Amino acid sequence: MDRAPAPAELRRLFARTLPSDVEIELGADAAAHARVLRLAAGDHVQLFDGRGHFVEGVITHAAKGTLRARSLGVPQFVEREQRVVLVQCLPKSGKLDDIVRMTSELGVAEIALAVSEYCVAKATREEQKIERLERVAIEAARQAEQAYVPVLHTARPLAEVLARAPQHAYRAAFLERSEVPLPAAFPSREVWLVVGPEGGLSSTDRAALTQANFIPSAIGRSILRTETAAVVGVALALERLGRCA
After folding, report:
1. Helical pair 123-144 and 28-36, crossing angle rounded to 10 deg
2. Exposed/middle/buried for residue 74 (C-beta within 10 Å: 0-12, 13-18, 19+)
3. Concatenated DSSP letters for 205-228?
4. How far is CA 188 from CA 2, 39, 46, 192, 241, in A?
């Protein structure tokens, strides 16, 4: 179970730490959410830290740009039983936000950005955007009532990213015209998925996938755009792990 159950009347706000019975500053993003939701001092909310912990809290101060709250009681914990890691080769500008937002809503555990041979985007530019992408992931997890916010990794060469996959993980790379579907049930509770950029994966990239024991896999018969493949692939993997969002 990866969701933090929240009573229907409680709105959710992100807090990086959840100390018990201590007033904490929630930050400008949370303050903006509170203004949209018309929350005020005295309102009860659910606070979550994106690492599985959540607790009921009360807003103690609300003003433009600032928001403070105090947790009520001891935080509860939701254990993450399955993990899907998305290895996303850098897409063209503008697509990465959508990929991060939608896969965060679904419940992806990590998003590891990778630089493959046919990538158009530059890794240096994406490193500058990682803080903004983390904000996108936090908001998506908050809205979708996910207990976890995915960990985002700055872009590294594809072979380097593939080497991080643990031995026990099921490894799949979505390649056009592959005839191997994802299995109906995975032999592991951790799944790594590779999605290439708009230009696809080169022979060099494919050799790296083979060396790292990633299985060439298909998502149906269609050749999907990179942003579509990422979302559909993560959704299918989560469904097969018994965590249909």
Report:
1. 40
2. exposed
3. HHHHHHHTTPEEEBSSSS---HHH
4. 17, 43, 32, 10, 9
Length of the chain: 245
Q: What is the mean pLDDT of residues 226-236?
A: 96
Cβ count within 10 A of residue 131 = 9
Alpha helices in 112-152 (DSSP H): 123-144
Give the closest residue to 235 by CA, choosing from 224, 244, 225, 226. 244
Structure tokens at 157: 């060469």
Q: Where are the beta strands (DSSP E) in 27-74?
A: 44-48, 53-63, 66-71
Closest Cα partner for 33 from 184, 140, 174, 179? 140
In angstroms, the Cα distances linking 87 to 20, 155, 231 are 36, 10, 12
**Is the pTM here over 0.85, yes or no?**
yes
Q: Measured between alpha carbons, how far is 83 from 109 in angstroms, rounded to an integer?
A: 5
pLDDT at residue 244, rounded to an integer: 47
Q: CA 12 to CA 49: how far, in whole Å?
A: 10
